[in-house]
C-alpha cells in the first residue's frame, strides 16, 4: 500500500468531488488547487466518482452532425456551427463509419486570368525537343551489359 502526504484537506477533496460532478473540467479544478489533473482524477476514482464521459454534444447532435456531413457540409462549417474543432468533427464522423471526402485544393494559376493560357503545341521548350525512342543496343556482347573489352573498376 502506498503512503503519501495529501496536499488537499478533506474539505477540499469534497469540493473537488462536487465540482467535478457538476461537470467542471479536472484541469481547471487542478490548477486552482495547485495539483495535477491526475491527482484530481485519483481523488475521484478513490471516492467512486466515474470519469466524465459526456462531451459537449448530445447523442442526437452527434448523429445530426454526421448527417450534415453526408448532405455536403464541410468539416469547417460543422465545427463552426457546433463550437467544436475540425478534428473533433472528423473524429465523430469517422467513428460513425462515414467516409471522409477528399479535400478540394484549387490549383494555382501563374498566368493572367484575362488572357487564355498558351497552347502546349507549337511553341515553348517541349515543342523544340526532338522525338526519341529507347532501343536495346544489340552491339553489347558482354552478359553484364558492358561492351567487350571494357575495364570495370573492381
What does this structure look like?
With 154 residues, the protein is an all-alpha fold. Among the domains are: 10-46; 59-95. The protein is built from 7 helices and no strands. It has helices at residues 10-21, 26-33, 37-46, 59-70, 75-82, 86-95, 125-128. Helix 2 crosses helix 3 (37-46) and helix 5 (75-82) crosses helix 6 (86-95). The longest helix is centred in the first third of the chain and has 12 residues, at 10-21. It is elongated, with a radius of gyration of 33 Å. It starts with 9 loop residues before the first helix and ends in a 26-residue tail after the last helix. 8% of the residues are buried.
Strand runs, count:
0
User: Largest sheet at a glance?
Assistant: none
Radius of gyration: 33 Å
Helix and strand succession? HHHHHHH
Which parts are unreliable, with pLDDT below 50 for 5 consecutive residues or more?
none
The average pLDDT is 76
CA distance, first residue to last residue: 70 Å
Task: Provide a count of the helices.
Answer: 7
Question: Which characteristics define this entry?
Answer:
154 residues, mainly alpha, elongated
Walk me through the topology.
Blueprint: H1 10-21, H2 26-33, H3 37-46, H4 59-70, H5 75-82, H6 86-95, H7 125-128
Short description:
The chain has helices spanning 10-21, 26-33, 37-46, 59-70, 75-82, 86-95, 125-128. With 154 residues, it is an all-alpha fold.
Amino acid at each position: 500500500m502506498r503512503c503519501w502526504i495529501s496536499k488537499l484537506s478533506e474539505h477540499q477533496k469534497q469540493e473537488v468531488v462536487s465540482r467535478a460532478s457538476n461537470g467542471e473540467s479536472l484541469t481547471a479544478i487542478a490548477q486552482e488547487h495547485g495539483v495535477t489533473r491526475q491527482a484530481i482524477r485519483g481523488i475521484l476514482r478513490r471516492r467512486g466518482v466515474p470519469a466524465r464521459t459526456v462531451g459537449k454534444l448530445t447523442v442526437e447532435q452527434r448523429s445530426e452532425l454526421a448527417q450534415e456531413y453526408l448532405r455536403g457540409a464541410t468539416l469547417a462549417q460543422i465545427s463552426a456551427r457546433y463550437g467544436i474543432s475540425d478534428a473533433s468533427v472528423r473524429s465523430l464522423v469517422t467513428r460513425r463509419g462515414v467516409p471522409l471526402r477528399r479535400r478540394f485544393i484549387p490549383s494555382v494559376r501563374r498566368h493572367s486570368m484575362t488572357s487564355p493560357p498558351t497552347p502546349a503545341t507549337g511553341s515553348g521548350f517541349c515543342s523544340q525537343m526532338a522525338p526519341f525512342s529507347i532501343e536495346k543496343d544489340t552491339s553489347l556482347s558482354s552478359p553484364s551489359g558492358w561492351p567487350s573489352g571494357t575495364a570495370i573498376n573492381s
